[in-house]
Structure formats: structure tokens, C-alpha cells
Automatic annotation (TrEMBL):
It comes from the Bacteria. Residues 41-213 form the FAD-binding PCMH-type domain. Keywords: FAD, Flavoprotein. This is FAD-binding oxidoreductase. It comes from Leptothoe kymatousa TAU-MAC 1615.
Amino acid sequence: MASPILPLLPSNLEVIQDPNQVAKLSKDYYHFSPVLTAQLQDKVADVVIRPATEAEVLQVAKACVASKTPLTVRGAGTGNYGQCIPLEGGIILDLSKLNRTKWVKPGLACVEAGAKLAAIDKITREQGWEIRMAPSTYRTATIGGFIGGGSGGIGSITYGQLADRGNLTAVRVVTMEDEPQILELRGDDVQKVNHAYGTNGIITELEIPLGPAYPWAEVIVTFDDFMQAARFGYTLGEADGIIKKLISIHAWPVPSYFAALQEFLPPNQTAALLMIAESSLEPFGELVKAYGGTVTYQKTAEAAKKGAALAEFTWNHTTLHARNVDTNLTYLQTLFPYDTDLKLVEHMYRHFGDEVLMHLEFFRVHGQVCPAALQLVRYTTEARLNEIIRYHETQGAFIANPHTYILEDGGRKEINDTQVAFKGQVDPYGLLNPGKMRGWLERNT
């Protein structure tokens, strides 16, 4: 059935109606979760629209409001929680054509929402700067999708999370009012749309802060003992004089899933996958010696441009590689409390054994180095998965549940009244990515 929006659109817009293409562009990596797979596998949009300018986005927004057609914004579809999967059909707004880097200044860039992170860096590095943090899907993810659905990543050991003040400077947002308009949010106001799954505004342009572009060496260090590796990772995170971008610790058998790296990953060894500034390699080497690690792999920044990037085996790419071997594996997202002794990490590692395989990513939380875990879970039933989650929570770990598509239930676990109020202002009919914001669904209850 033809979408009621089509007669309202100008003829110059790119419209995709081929069912196979529409189905493909209606999905992300939700299948990492067996829970989400059952809930979302039949969800699909009616049509995909691919605007090339902000003016065309305004035209689509106006037509959606006039026809009361739901609209779900898509970047590159690299999310894992169904953020860009339409629950009520309607329009997928694919922003991949809004991909310009408009300007670069020292420490700051202005980019369109559909610009790929790697493409932005290619431009900014010519001036000695780079994006502060990125997901493991860095080569394909868009900046708008990362802000709308991400929270941190490679670089977070230095710069914290996207939600931290200073990690997003400004955004331009198209509204879904009767007469859609463009709003510019700056300063703390950017939090109104930061990590909101596109439920309360269509981000078209962003000003993002940059960090110095160091030549990053890639290093693998192996250890006989997981906890020794974990303590090494924590100490490296706290070593302020050593410039680093990635500290990723993988208990065996997780390294066995990394096919392209097998010659560097001895059996039964824990592996640390790291990105270290070349200028810091000498003091870094001393730290490796102090913890009894063995360097099995080291590439200069220039050599690292070729072949598989270590970062693509970390964060959620770890889950991707593991599931390529065993589709019964799923994952958790766990934030352990600040603890220099890593007692809770050790408890969970020993308590669950081979059922929950430990994978740590170190990052900064309010200035303190903390381990986040993206553990691999040998899935049996949803009930058992929920038991594992509850056990973590009762022991004091925070679970950002990757098995729900509801914004609040997956992350903060509380309603963000500011974001809900902003949705009421800019999307009064609730057409933007409907069904994803619990605060909006429950506002009148």
C-alpha cells in the first residue's frame, strides 16, 4: 500500500520503495540480542526517503506532520538496540547524503549529521586534529547516529562519555511541528537530544570538539592471568603521562574468536588490545614489564593503516566477531563501580565462569578510571539472561541493558524529563521514532 506521504512530497526527493531495500534500511544490529530479534524482526518502514539538504529534511518533516506519518531517522544502521527500527512503519529518513564537513578550526569541527566518522577524521587530521571518541563501527558509523544512539567508545579512556559536558558543542535540529522549523541548541541544551534515539528532533548538523591527532601505535599484550591483565589495564588508564586511546581486555576464550589475529593470541592467554601514542611507547613498555605481560603484536601508526584495525575487535565488535563463530552468544553492557582493587570484576569473573566471558573496556567516569564490561553470554533462555542481569545489579554493578529498544530502560533507567518536555515542544504529535521513549508513552498516566 502506498504511503499517504508520497503525494505531499516534492518530486526532487530521492524516494526508495523497493521492498528489499526498504527492509534492509529498516534494520540495525538488533540481532545481537535474541530478545530483540523476536520483538523486531518483522518491523519495517513503508518507504525510505534520502534527503540531500537540510531544506529537503524540512520538506519531509512538513509532509509527515500533514499526513501524521511516523518518521524514524537513520544514520548507517550500526546500532545494536533497534534504535533505527520503525515500530509503526512510516518513513525511514536516511541522512547519509548530508555528509559534509563544513569547517574545521583548532579543536572544533562543524559537520552534517550523515558524515561518517572516518571521513571526518580524514579531513580534520590534515590540521592535526581528530574526533575525540568513536565506536568500533568507526569506518561506517555516522556522527549523527553516534550522537543519537551511542554513549562512548575508543577514546573514552581520555575524554569520558558523550554525555559529559564539553563532548558536544552544538546541534541543529529540525522539528516536527505543524510548521517545522530549525532550532540551534548550544551548551547544556545539546543534552535535550543527545542519546535520544532521534525521538525528539531530527539532527541535521553538529559542532563537535576535537582532540590532538597523535600517531597511534597498535599493541597486543598477553597475560597468563585475567586479573593481572585487568589490573594492568586499570593502571595504564590511571597513568596520566602515557597517552592512550584504547584499553580493551579479553579473557580467554574471547581472543579465540578473533580469526585475523590468531598468530598473536596464544591459547589460554588473556589479551589486552591497546592504542598507545608512539611517543609513549617507552614508558608503556616499562609498565608491561612491571605486570609481566608479553607484547605479541605492535604496529606503528603508519603500518596500522593497512590490514585489520585492532579497534575493530573491541567494544561491540568483540560481540560481532564472537557471534560469527557462535550465534548462541549474546552480550551484556556492565559498568563496574570505581574500585582500585577491581573486586567486583573479579567476583563476576569467577562467579559466572564460562557462562559469562569477561571483556573489559576502560574509560573515564567523572575523572575516574572505571571498567565497563561488554561480557559475552552463552544464551540459554530469556529468564536466565534476566537472572544474570539481576545478579549483577544486586551486587552493585550497573547494567545498560542491550536487550531492550526502550530508551530509558536500556540506559539511565530513569525518565529524562527535559528530553520528554522537549519532545512535547518539537514533536507534539509523537511522530518521531514512536514507541521508543517511555517517558513520552507514560506522560499522561
